[in-house]
Design brief:
about 700 residues, Rossmann fold, Spore Coat Polysaccharide Biosynthesis Protein SpsA, Chain A, 3 domains, seven-stranded parallel sheet, 23 helices
């Protein structure tokens, strides 16, 4: 599904020029540094004043120097890889509770299809809740342990959401649900560790949909309610410290040990529980819990240096500025952005998405991103980009602006004023001026040719002004090098999950076209194919032509017939690709890399492409795709692949190989990490160079 939807111009003033003063030198940089330093000190003081141990620690805090950000969010010596993955199958979960609970029926809201058992120790057999959890966990047979407080009522989908945390974040060790009070407000969305070992709930009193707390994120600790840990990891760390009477502090102490070993602790707001009652805890137990946490932190991190707080450093922050919230099942541009956001989460960053034309959105697409660890600035809290930036007291470490229409006017300047030391990366999505130029030459349209020139000036201005520009193909990079020899560019092809081949040649039937129809090259491609190529295959193909894609206009809807199935948007593209023999990409104009081609190769389905569709993607005719330049050649290539099992198998294998090597999430992750290294920004030490 090509493109990211209609390109909406944003009138924010004049275009940023190619030439600009050096913002890293002179008085402007020193002034900006002083402002940033002042803001950082304000935030630090606010944290101190909020601590219950301010009077004790103030003299020491005033003497210490401010720590520098570490080179990597995960220390090089502590970067294990947690190989436990869940995917679509959670497997068996052992839910353990420290007390024999009368509220076990609360678990009946668990979604069907997830295997779990509830284990509680006999009453009075353990001196502390932590010891009771250890005793119950010793009986567990599931791959996953969930510590449930025995009283809080889980909301539907809680287990699945906790499990998803282990595929979204780097080296996850523990995931905790968000606790709600009976009024439906947040009781705790994770917690921070105060200097005295106290647990300070995050988001207390806020609405669950508040953007600051509605996304999965790494935290210092999670409170008792529902906390998931891989069983193998639980046993590796020896479970909870049985001497700690407070279950919250016992979990915090385990979190400290996990974080010291390089694992992350995640709060997952898509997993929610409603608190029915607090577990009884006297003042001595609470004080003893804080004491244990302080001792553990000192032992792990060395003396009084731990007074600064729990984690070594906050995750670096990246701001993505786009028009819309991505809808990855509807267009390729959205799928690209969705994958890029996910990659930043796996690299230990906290991404914020600012959809400038979509700030009121609140739907499943927003929820999906938040579940995966992306902070989405929607929900009606902000009216525009200016309002959002005014509300952000913290600078970003990196800014990514997508599309030529978003790079217009004074937007770059406003972003740089807000975060003066953040490199600004321009992501073209594709070269819009090249796409319009090709369309104009195909249609002999003077208006479209003039529009291509306007877009060229806009895009080249943005490329020249940005610290780096992301291009999707080597062909685009070569073109930009000719037009702007000193432009700082890098190639990061589109990224896709690689589902692999779901079925062999034999049971498959028919031909599939994939494309979002707000992208004009897709409309032209499928209409011209049905008119000029499909009649040549009539009666010779076992199966129909299936057209998959959202927002079909009238000329595409008119193509439906006995042998043309207009499917529209689909929830499961993999299922469609699992049943067809061949896909087509008969594009006559366009630019950038083609998501429809990558999706086909990633599913092991051979694809027949036009030269425009193959451009810059590293594909070879007869090796991993078939390239056809005219209707007769296109029909012959489709028929050949549809009828010859050996050729189909060879291209299927080769297509899968190139998809894994060039277009996989893992390949893209290495390229993004390379971009971050070039910009002197944090990258986990375990990410190999591209």
């Amino acid at each position: 599904m090509e493109g990211g939807g209609a390109d909406l111009p944003v009138d924010v003033g004049t275009s940023p020029g190619v030439d600009r003063p050096d913002r890293r030198g002179g008085l402007e940089r020193r002034y900006a540094a002083a402002v940033a330093e002042l803001l950082e000190l304000r935030r630090e003081l606010a944290t101190v004043y909020g601590s219950r141990s301010w009077r004790l620690t103030a003299p020491l805090r005033l003497l210490r120097t401010r720590p520098r950000r570490p080179e990597s969010p995960v220390p090089a010596a502590q970067a294990p890889t947690n190989t436990a993955t869940i995917g679509t199958d959670v497997g068996h979960v052992s839910v353990i509770a420290p007390i024999a609970s009368a509220h076990a029926t609360a678990l009946h809201g668990t979604p069907a299809g997830l295997g779990f058992d509830l284990i509680t120790p006999p009453d009075g057999t353990a001196p502390t809740a932590a010891a009771a959890c250890n005793a119950a966990a010793a009986q567990a047979v599931g791959e996953w342990l969930v510590i449930w407080d025995g009283t809080s009522a889980p909301r539907p989908g809680w287990l699945r959401a906790l499990a998803d945390s282990f595929t979204a974040f780097p080296n996850p060790g523990m995931a905790g649900a968000v606790l709600l009070d009976r009024a439906g407000r947040i009781f705790a969305a994770g917690a921070t560790l105060a200097t005295d070992g106290a647990l300070l709930p995050l988001g207390a009193g806020a609405a669950p949909g508040e953007p600051e707390h509605a996304f999965a994120a790494t935290v210092d600790a999670v409170l008792a309610g529902a906390v998931m840990v891989p069983t193998a990891l639980w046993r590796r760390f020896g479970g909870l410290d049985p001497q700690i009477a407070s279950l919250d502090h016992a979990l915090a102490e385990l979190a400290l040990r996990m974080q010291h070993a390089g694992f992350t602790v995640v709060r997952q707001p898509a997993a929610q529980l409603v608190r029915r009652a607090s577990m009884p805890e006297d003042a001595w137990s609470a004080a003893l819990g804080r004491w244990h946490v302080r001792r553990r932190r000192i032992a792990l991190r060395g003396g009084m240096a731990v007074l600064g707080g729990g984690r070594t450093a906050a995750a670096p922050r990246v701001l993505f500025v786009e028009h819309f919230v991505p809808t990855p099942d509807r267009d390729s541009g959205s799928a690209d952005l969705h994958a890029m956001l996910r990659v930043f989460v796996t690299l230990g960053w906290e991404p914020t998405l600012l959809p400038a034309s979509d700030l009121d959105r609140a739907d499943r697409y927003v929820a999906d991103l938040r579940r995966r660890g992306v902070r989405v600035a929607t929900g009606g809290k902000w009216r525009d980009v200016t309002g959002f930036l005014a509300s952000e007291t913290r600078s970003f470490d990196l800014i990514v602006v997508s599309r030529a229409s978003m790079a217009s006017g004074t937007l770059f300047a406003r972003l740089r004023r807000h975060s003066p030391f953040a490199p600004l990366v321009f992501n073209t999505v594709d070269l819009h001026f090249l796409r319009y130029e090709r369309a104009a030459l195909l249609e002999c349209s003077a208006a479209t040719l003039d529009e291509s020139f306007r877009l060229q000036q806009l895009e080249l201005g943005a490329i020249g002004s940005a610290d780096r520009t992301i291009l999707l193909s080597d062909a685009e990079q070569t073109l930009i090098e000719e037009l702007l020899p000193h432009a700082r560019t890098c190639v990061i092809p589109i990224m896709r999950d690689i589902p692999g081949r779901a079925a062999p040649f034999g049971p498959r039937r028919g031909v599939v076209f994939i494309g979002g129809f707000r992208h004009l090259p897709n409309v032209d491609a499928v209409v011209s194919f049905v008119r000029e190529v499909w009649p040549k295959l009539s009666g010779r193909i076992d199966g129909k032509l299936t057209i998959v894609g959202a927002d079909a206009p009238a000329e595409v809807r008119a193509l439906a017939g006995p042998d043309v199935d207009l499917r529209g948007p689909v929830d499961d593209l993999d299922a469609v690709l699992a049943g067809c023999r061949v896909t087509i990409a008969p594009l006559r104009f366009g630019a950038g890399a083609k998501g429809k081609v990558v999706s086909s190769l990633a599913a092991g389905v051979p694809c027949v492409v036009s030269p425009i569709a193959a451009e810059g993607m590293g594909l070879t005719d007869g090796l991993n795709v078939r390239v056809a330049a005219d209707p007769d050649a296109f029909a012959a290539a489709v028929l050949e692949l549809h009828d010859e099992p050996e050729l189909w198998q060879r291209l299927s294998d080769a297509g899968l190989a190139v998809a894994r090597r060039r277009f996989s999430i893992d390949a893209g992750r290495r390229l993004v990490a390379g971009l971050l290294r070039d910009l002197d920004l944090p990258v986990p030490a375990d990410v190999a160079p591209p």
